[in-house]
Amino acid sequence: MDQHEGSFLDGKRKMFSSNSSIVHSPSLVRESYRRPNRTGAILKSMQLIDDAVANTTPMVSTITKTHTNQYDTSKLNFSKSLLTGYTGIEDHNMSRLSMPSDFGAMESLMEPKTPAAFARRDKSSRFEPERNPCETVTTSLFNEFKQNLCECESSLDVFSMVDAMEESCTEHVQLLSKSAASQFTDRDDSVMDLRQMLTSEKQTWRLVSSLFRDRLAEADKDEDMTVDLKNQVMSEKEAVGRFFDQNTDVRQAQIVIDWLEQNASDDFEGVVEQSRHYTGRVCWENTLHTLKKHTEQGIEPNCVSEMDPDAPTRTRSPLIDLDVEDENLLLKCAFSCIRAGKIDRAQELCLAHGQAWRAASLEGWRLFHDPNYAENATDTLTSLEGNPNRKLWKIAAWHMSKNNAYNEIERAIYGALCGNLKAMLDVCTSWEDCLWAHFKTMVELNVEQHIQNSPNLQLPWQQVVGGALSIPEEYWMQRVTQHEQIFEKMEGSYNQTVQDEGKMPYHFIQKCLILGNVDALLEEALEWLTDIHPHLLRFLAHLILFLKSIGIAFNVEHADTILKAFVSFLIQDESTSHMVAMYTAFLPKDEQLSSYAEFLSTVEDPQLRHEFLQLAEEAGLDIPSITKKVVEQIRAEGEPDLVDISVLHGHDEKMPIDLHISASDRKKIDAIDWLVFDRSQRCEALKQSNAVVRMFLAGRKLSAAKEVLLKIPSDSIDVVYTEWGHKADSSVPLPPDKDNTIKEHLCLQAYLETQQAFSDWFKHYHNKPSASNPAEPTSMYNSVSISELVAEELRQKKFDDDVIMWKDRLEQFCDSVAKKIYNVLLFPQGWLADNAEQLEDKDESREQQLATLREQCIPSLCDLLITVLTSTENHNSECAKLADVIASEDHKLYKLFSDSEGRKLLNRIQDAMIDTL
User: Fold this and answer.
1) Contacts with 117 (C-beta within 8 Å, 6 or more apart), sequence order
2) 25, containing H or E segment
3) pLDDT of 701-718, one tens digit each?
4) What is the distance between the alpha carbons of residues 219 and 468, in angstroms, rounded to a whole number?
5) Which of 208, 355, 198, 209 lies closest to 283, judged by CA?
6) How confident is the model at residue 369 (pLDDT cuts 50, 70, 90)?
7) What does the radius of gyration of the chain's CA atoms come to, in whole angstroms?
8) DSSP characters for 541-556?
9) How far is CA 705 from CA 213, 697, 856, in A?
10) What are the tens digits of pLDDT across the range 123-162?
């Protein structure tokens, strides 16, 4: 760009840099922006590619780590527009942009390290999609984007975050481009598709930064500062500059043009290299050589006979074929330069090919400005800017762009400069090119209309003389004046390629961003979720977070669905699981609980559990609610209906007791560990363990129930009282729900102790000493020797002693069983019966389960006690005490027996009492 080129946005940049801390130069930001993990990630990615292709030359040694993002979003300018050279916009006093943001809550979010035990996870429990080496390399983008979010401490940093995301994509695009010629990528087109996808993402982040910087600056303008300039004389450049400042649609259209041109300039150097010339600054050298040769020989030339620029079209005679080929190549390169917004490079190419006249013709579109009339002008005269005969040039360029005698590329070049849409579309083959042509035409029409409607312009004498000239009516009939019209025309394009490319995800996203229709973007994105590429999903999630942070209104429900899908992907992909906590924090409260609980329910490694809870705490998630949800979800897997169990099995002695602990049972048991990390959750641990034990007791899985209680620390009840004491005065009793939880825990503990006591009694009862056989005669007279008699007596004495000890021990076990069973039967205020206080929110399901277990367990314990008493010598009479306890109105245990159970129990007690007579 030469020294005369400037732009309207150059003035906007001055305004931003002096008055706003948000809209600043990304080049300065990136100079101070430190990303400590970036270099390591990129070098590691390069090494992965080297390993994949088995290249003996390390790729790292051939690549220098640099900040490769050449596109500066704050430096979007109109150097390619009608405003080139304009620098006269004065700074406005702009207040700091104030944007509602969810990023303020992330100040405490630091970059969490990947869990140390992550590599030890059971990989079979995770979905790990197969990737080729290049896709594996790009997975570091997930970490980099997460780091960008962590480093964004407030809404003031969101544009720095967007710039960093664009830079990350740029680096990975270059990395993939570097590996595009490797062995494995030659056989895998998906790598090229991935590179194109990341290129589109990079360009979309660039568009986001450009559009929303301007929109937020526009929203922050002080309307009272608008100055009435209707009667002020100004030049074309000044008038158009102020027009851009006031007309948001045209300014945004120019931003889109600059964005499209910057995208085209990314690969610009490779296109320009195609241009070649063989002699210094000689135009059509082969034709010139032929003319000289034929003139010397007196031969009539078979080509043009003159060498002026208009000769081929005026005389309708061709150039030499080699010159035609060079001319076509030059025009293609010149158009590529203009498409990339580099008119100065196009002029340099023309000069290098000896076409100074063409280079001069590319200069005529510039707006006229005489700085000597400015208020701050000095006595020293300053050179004029722009083209004083711009209108005349535009009329000539218009007719030239419509003249079929010229090459279609040449018509497109001048059509782009004067605003001939059809001339540009004739050579545009892609969606981006057509979009550029339409927006160029829109800006040209609006600017030209504004110039014609401005009565107080500085007009040079040449324009006064030529004032009768008018732009052809066909120019105004193009009717490309609104953004919506542009996309409607492109959707109805006769070019099927343009239609198809317009439906591609990133192009659709870019369209919605330009139109400001975020809801349409999200609605369409929901359709993609069924089969979406991870990188596209990552982009959508971060785009939503950005839009949310700057206060853009959109359908929150749709956005949350997309964010939840991204969190689900992070959960499934083993390499990104450590990011789940941070992104879950952006979901609604209820979704946070369900999503992170679903994730934690799959984690079995104890160390990983602790680390994932730490990550959740750093992200600000509700740990108590999440861990509670985890246990409830695991508990709900295959949980039986207790009422049905009691009906089906009741006290059926044929039902097996103490079944083997299955994998599902083990998972439910281990789930209690989630609640014992935090002392404040100890009451919840008791509550959830009670629920699991109730389930196991209903299924008669006593060993599993015992293991659940072993998970509860022995000091849990004291901890519950201590934690309550921190919240309330010591004189305030525990709330009814906490009190009932503790009581239920003690009830279940008492019941399992009876089962253990009965198990001990049962084992001892069936291990009764057995008497030895009497000694047999060993002599010929069938007599027993004295030594044998003595040994027999000693064996008999030992047997009698063992029996006495067995009976004494059996007595002890019997007393222990009776004591523990009576502890259950006579439990204060009833076993598994809640205290009398009324709860605000009653759990009807729990109350029904407690009632079912009382009806199932109490009669069973009574049967066990009678069995123990009647099987233990001299304890039959104690059965009467059991009958009194059951019949007592204080505890009303008789209500827990069915008629058949009651008759059976009374008959057993009666038989026991008869035996005592």
Assistant:
1) 605, 607, 608, 611
2) none
3) 889 999 999 999 999 999
4) 41
5) 355
6) confident
7) 44
8) HHHHHHHHHTT----H
9) 62, 7, 16
10) 333 344 455 555 566 778 898 998 888 887 655 678 989 9
How far out from the chain centre does Cα 219 lie? 28
Closest CA to 240 of 426, 411, 386, 139: 386
Inter-residue contact 81 to 254 (CB < 8 Å): yes
Write b or e for each residue in 804-817: b if 16 or more Cβ atoms lie within 10 A of its Cβ, otherwise e: eeebeebeebbbbb
- Residue 513 CB neighbour total at 10 angstroms: 20
- Quote the tokens at residue 397: 């360029």
Kindly report the length of the chain.
917
Q: Lowest mean pLDDT: which of 10-24, 321-335, 555-569, 704-718?
A: 10-24
Separation of alpha carbons 337 and 264, rounded Å: 9
Tens of pLDDT along 191-241?
788 889 999 999 999 999 999 999 998 887 755 445 555 567 788 888 888
**Phi-psi map region of 247: left, alpha, beta (phi>0 left; psi -120 to 50 alpha):** beta
CA 451-453-454 angle, to 5 degrees, is 65
Of 77, 71, 90, residue with least CA distance to 214: 77
* Nearest Cα residue to 482 out of 269, 313, 248, 288: 248
Q: How far apart are CA 722 and CA 728, in angstroms?
A: 10
Question: Dihedral of CA 466/472/476/480: which sign?
Answer: negative
Residue 890 CA, chain-centre distance (Å), reads: 62
Domains (range + CATH), the chain: 8-226+517-621 (no CATH), 270-482 (1.10.3450.20), 742-772+800-917 (1.20.190.50)
Instruction: Report the range of poorest mean pLDDT among 441-455, 743-757, 819-833, 836-850.
Output: 836-850
How crowded is the C-beta side of 884, counted as CA atoms within 13 Å?
Answer: 5
HEC string for 167-216:
HHHHHHHHHHHHCCCCHHHHCCHHHHHHHHHHHHHHHHHHHHHHHHHHHH
Task: Note the pLDDT of residue 654.
Answer: 42
Distance CA 730, CA 423 (A): 87
Helices 682-698 and 736-765: crossing angle in degrees, nearest 10, is 50
Reduce the DSSP state of residue 506 to 3 states and report it: helix
What is the rounded distance in angstroms from the CA atom of residue 684 to the CA atom of residue 591? Answer: 21
Longest Cα–Cα distance of the chain, Å, equals: 162
CA dihedral over 827, 830, 835, 836, signed as positive or negative: negative
Q: Chain-centre distance of CA 581, in angstroms?
A: 11
| Average pLDDT score over residue span 327-332 | 89
Residue 665 in tokens: 């049972």
Per the CB < 8 A criterion, the answer to whether 720 and 682 are in contact is yes
Name the residue with tokens 């003595």: 790
Q: Whole-angstrom Cα distance, residue 581 to residue 618?
A: 8
Query: Residue 641 in 3-state DSSP?
Result: coil
Structure-block tokens of residue 659:
């079944």
Q: Amino acid letter at 418?
A: C
The least confident of 72-86, 351-365, 739-753 is: 72-86
Instruction: Work out the end-to-end distance of the chain between its first and last CA atoms, rounded to an integer number of angstroms.
Output: 121
What's this model's pTM, rounded to 2 decimal places?
A: 0.75
Cα 310–chain centre separation: 59
Per-residue model confidence (pLDDT) at position 655? 46
Q: Which of 204, 187, 206 is nearest to 196 (CA)?
A: 204
218-232, 290-304, 443-457, 503-517: least confident range? 218-232
Predicted local distance difference test score (pLDDT) of residue 222: 59
Quick one: how far is CA 679 from the chain centroid? 32
Beta strands in 212-288 (DSSP E): none
Q: Give the chain's count of helices (H) and strands (E).
A: 42, 0
- Residues in contact with 282: Cβ distance below 8 Å, sequence separation at least 6, in sequence order: 288, 354
